[in-house]
Amino acid sequence: MKKKFLYYLVFLFISFQNAIAGSFHLDIVEVAPGIFVHQGEHHDVDEGYQGDICNIGFIIGKDSVAVVDSGGSLEIGKALKASIRERTSLPIKYVINTHVHLDHIYGNAVFVNKNTKFIGHSELPKAMQLRKEIYERLNLEYLNTPIEKSIQIPPSIFIKVNESQIFDLGERKIKISAYPSAHTNNDITIEDLKTGTLWAGDLLFVERTPVVDGDIHGIIKVIDQLLSLKINLVIPGHGTPTIKWREAFKKHKNYFIILRDEVRNAIAEDIGLQEAIETVAQSEAKKWELFDVQNPRNINQAYTQLEWE
Ligand SMILES: [Zn+2]
Questions:
Q1: Neighbours of ion ligand 1 (CB under 5 A)
Q2: If 0-12 CB within 10 Å is exposed, 13-18 middle and 19+ buried, where does residue 148 land?
Q3: How far is the CA of 98 from the centre of ligand 1 (A)?
Q4: pLDDT tens, 169-205?
Q5: What is the pTM of this model?
């Protein structure tokens, strides 16, 4: 009798686990024909982080599929793969990572397959390696992911800085371009030539406060470069895809110009980092979400960079 009860408990537990695994479903929007995006929530990587804070998605061609960013965990990766399989049985030929940040790459392992190639900036493997331990710690702390399940899959196809490569998904060409240090030192964009859609990765934030983890001058320069593109729609790394992409890039750039100028002034006037953190770019506070969390980090990054100029 006791044994039976125990089996019953085990059965209940397994059913419960399956229910959790099976119930995970991503909201996906087809933003342009054949281009599907899941929009993450605006959370910081802190208490409440659930591995689902950036935009991830896929592009379906006539012969194959490309994934753009895989989410912050294996669970998100699995849910993304399931959403692809709800729409097509075509092979997933490419998994593209727009850059190294943990919310964009930890679903990669779900897509490992002999027919799937991983694409990224030529600096991406090194950047992954450098952040490996910190990311394992964060994934363990917030997602309860055991270290052996924080799996990095680096690219096997590299895009060199200032270069572009075209990939064909079958009657659908995508152009992947790599940039000098900006949001990070390993940013790429993906342009779908068929619909004029640009996946900007974190070279564009919409709604949420932008992040500099590379080079503040680089960000401003890259945005000028992207503003000259002939495209219809931009999918940012965070926030809502937009056809008003010029305005969005300009707002993004404007924040960094204010940040750069006010940090420069602070340094020139011998204002210390701590005081700068409390005062710089406050005119932007109401324009962005998570501003009080992210703006101090950006000031810290910019101050350290600009101090040496
Ligand atoms: Zn990022």
A1: 101, 202
A2: exposed
A3: 8
A4: 999 999 999 999 999 999 999 999 999 999 999 999 9
A5: 0.91
